[in-house]
Amino acid sequence: MNEASATYDIAVIGGGPAGLAAAIALAETGAKTALIARRAPYADNRTTALLGGSVDFLRQLNVWPHCEDKAAALQAMRLVDDTGRLIRAPEVRFSSDEIGLDAFGYNIENRALMLALEARAAEVSGLTRLDDEADTIDPQDAEVVIRTRQGQSLSARLVVGADGRQSLCRDAAGIEVKRRDLSQAALTLNIGHSRPHKNISTEFHTPDGPCVFVPLPGDRSSVVWVSSPKEAERLIGLSDEELSGAIERQSHSILGRVGVEPGRHKFPLAIERPAQIAKNRIALVGESAHVVPPIGAQGLNMGLRDAADIADVVRDALTAAEDPGSPQLLGRYASARRSDVASRTFVIDIANRSLLSDFLPMQTARAAGLHLIDSIGPLRRLAMREGLAPSWRRVS
Ligand SMILES: Cc1cc2nc3c(=O)[nH]c(=O)nc-3n(C[C@H](O)[C@H](O)[C@H](O)COP(=O)(O)OP(=O)(O)OC[C@H]3O[C@@H](n4cnc5c(N)ncnc54)[C@H](O)[C@@H]3O)c2cc1C
Question: Is the Cβ atom of 299 under 6 angstroms away from ligand 1?
Fold first, then answer.
């Protein structure tokens, strides 16, 4: 990457997975792009189930070859009602071969994905990295002026805000956000186990949220265990032996003996919906644009579709010699993203509420819905395809 210069077509702010993917994709459109992001080792042990077009998009960006050997294929998904309630849903099992795919996607540790994104970002021409943070972001008529914490100043015609939940870009654009804290927290950790996972991801639905076991390469899986914040606090404080035992019990020993690996993290869950996804020369991607609980592995998959779509609209604008930060371009990006983000946020919210609800009709509706999905072939296939990506998209 080159020395920083003062004016750019695009400045991407934030170097999480969504920001890095967006910066690579944008630089590859030929846009003169700056990435303002601190280089820091990835701080937690989350993994991402990359579904649908996400892997195709990472392949197009030439990122996937840097990490595909670290990913495990997801060939089947089991949903198991473990609520112990009177009205329970049937077990539902989806297989990727039912919709003609070798795999629904691939699960990878975020750390490995980040290293691959960083490696690719370092070799893309037209991308300038500023190892810094944005301090002030000032949208003006023809450009956005950015000052960094280390006192550098630059301007760009479009800012891509990939700065996560506490987004300075979103504030600078004047976009309001609706936040609903859920009284749930997710414990994340990785485990080794004595029985093979056979590339099957298993989701146990408990009355406090899902507990999900997602394959990693070898006899390893990642665990996302959603529970009440108090229970998550208790679990994170257990010894390795106690936690291994608790996980083995929660998994009903489907993976045999379980041993927890070092490193556990806890994430309070929330739903966040910004009023707009783009305004005043600033377009949001990733968690600055949507936060959903980890149900159905949708968060970063949506973030990668944001990155793909902003790059597409910028490519078209540059080809037509248009301003890449114009209200028309922001409008095109917003309409490309609106229904994907709104429909997924809604479905995830409903799925989560139906699990937590003690209201008998809600439990009945949930069980009946899963029963229909389980027993009606076309509905099963529709649910599988929609779970991967919106049906109106072919790739990414
Ligand atoms: C328990 C759990 C499990 C999940 N599992 C999945 C899954 O299986 N599949 C899936 O698709 N999604 C999953 N998700 C969601 C996924 O992890 C997130 O969507 C994703 O990590 C968000 O990436 P991001 O790049 O938008 O944000 P972040 O990773 O938060 O990156 C934002 C970056 O911006 C930087 N930043 C902030 N302010 C500034 C500034 N002023 N200047 C410069 N940089 C700044 C931050 O330091 C950070 O590096 C899960 C989430 C949780 C909580």
Answer: yes
Q: What is the full per-residue pLDDT of the chain (396 aa) written as tens digits?
A: 444 458 999 999 999 999 999 999 999 999 999 999 999 888 889 999 998 789 999 999 999 999 999 999 999 989 888 776 656 666 778 888 888 889 999 999 999 999 999 999 999 999 999 999 999 999 999 999 999 999 999 999 999 999 999 999 999 999 999 999 988 999 999 999 999 999 999 989 888 888 999 999 999 999 999 999 999 999 999 999 999 999 999 999 999 999 999 999 999 999 999 999 999 999 999 999 999 988 777 899 999 999 999 999 999 999 999 999 999 999 999 999 998 888 888 887 777 776 665 665 666 666 666 666 666 666 656 666 666 666 556 444
The CA distance from 42 to 297, in Å, is: 19
What is the whole-number distance in angstroms between the Cα of residue 130 and the centre of ligand 1? Answer: 19
148 close to ligand 1 (CB < 6 Angstrom): no
Alpha-carbon distance of 157 to 56, in angstroms, equals 29
Closest CA to 240 of 186, 185, 189: 189
Among residues 152, 133, 146, the alpha carbon closest in space to that of 173 is found at 146
Ligand 1, residues 163, 201, 305: which to mutate, most atoms within 8 A of Cβ? 163
Radius of gyration of the chain (CA): 21
* Site of tokens 């795999």: 103
